[in-house]
Amino acid sequence: MADYIQDLADELARDTLYGQIELEDEQFWEQVARVLGAASPTLQDAFLTSIRIRLAERRGRAFLDKALAAKRKGAKPPEAPREAEKGGH
């Protein structure tokens, strides 16, 4: 059952993050999380985990893209956040 819940949550997280673009609301995932929490805290937890992972991956990928672009241009690469600033888990 745990795999099923995680699969549902991850699919909804992916669709929600894409939907935010059309809705022009970068925090829409918070509303979806509240709806889930009212119906299933278990699904809400899995959804929030998927959202955090997907957002973190986006940030990591953006950092990688900037570092590679700087290297190709001979420019100074971006600095990663210091440990105290990174947030998350």
Radius of gyration: 16 Å
**Helix-strand sequence:** HHH
Judged by helices, strands and strand pairing, the structural class is mainly alpha
Tally of domains: 1
What would the average pLDDT be, to the nearest integer?
93
Strand content: under 5%
Termini Cα gap: 25 Å
Proportion of helical residues: over 70%
Low-confidence blocks of residues: none
Number of strands: 0
What's the total helix number? 3
**Biggest β-sheet: count, sense, barrel?**
none
Question: How does the overall form come out from the CA principal axes?
Answer: elongated
Summarize the structure.
The protein has 89 residues and is mostly helical. It has helices at residues 2-23, 28-39, 41-73.
Explained architecture:
By secondary structure, the protein is mainly α. It has one domain. The chain has three helices and no strands. The chain has helices at residues 2-23, 28-39, 41-73. The longest helix is centred in the middle third of the chain and has 33 residues, at 41-73. The radius of gyration is 16 Å and the shape is elongated. 11% of the residues are buried.
